[in-house]
Amino acid sequence: MRATASRAVLLSALLAGGLFGFGLALATMVKPESIVQFLLLNNMGLLLVLGGAAGVTAITYALLPRVMKRPVFGPVFHRHPSRLNAATLTGAAIFGVGWGLSGVCPGPAIAGLGVGNWPLILSVAGILAGAGLHGRLFGRHD
Amino acid sequence: MHSIAQWFPQGWRHFLLGGISIGLGVSVLFALTGLIGGVSTTYSALWSWLSRHSFFRHVNLVSKRGWLMMYSLGMIAGAAVFTFTLGHSQGFITRVPLWQLFVGGILAGFGARMGGGCTSGHGICGVGSGQVPSILAVVVFLATAILTAHLVHALGGF
Q: Which residues in chain B touch residue A55, judged by CB atoms under 8 angstroms apart?
């Protein structure tokens, strides 16, 4: 029974990732050039992407826990754990510098491989290195 | 001449529809599993296979790595499905210099993990659940990203 449940979770993640990746490609977010055009304030499309995604998410995050006792294949509805502290804001500032230098953030780096944007493998490697550096220097679980 | 159209020189529908598809992905994950679909944790979770460091071997990462890898595989597959359907089988290869992709990646990966989220974790899931720290994080990273891109542009990089 447990194995079935966890297989269901893995397949759910695959399906969810599929919609996510399809959306990133449709919205041209897998092209760093698109991100750069937004950051240079030439094209406001990225705001529609973020707004559309956050809007749909806001509805389901608010509604589903009220109409469902629990997720179909999971015990509880989780919450994104964000904290207001120096690490959150400093980290966000550093993240932005990297995003502005490359036009690539963690999701599109992965999804971009699906449109054949092979140079993004260097972004994946860089993000992996950055995450490794963070874990070794500052990583803690609390 | 100021009109809304000039802010969207390549049109706006694909941006909004793409955003909705991303939101549906995050929502499907939530409805079926209750999990939160931020992406940057994936990179730390990947280290749980590569490193013996106690941070990466912690149950918080080891317990997530399975579904996070499937989420990533799904993202690659979903983008490939787009390419071979609406994308008319035309892929895309960026011209951003390779060193910028790599160095920018290091900073983005480090910062996202330090700040507890990236464009998806804070920007979609955090904002989507109305969390003030996430909204502030988005304002901060948009500001530093816009400044950095302008600086790179001024130096002839973009």
A: 19-20, 23, 128
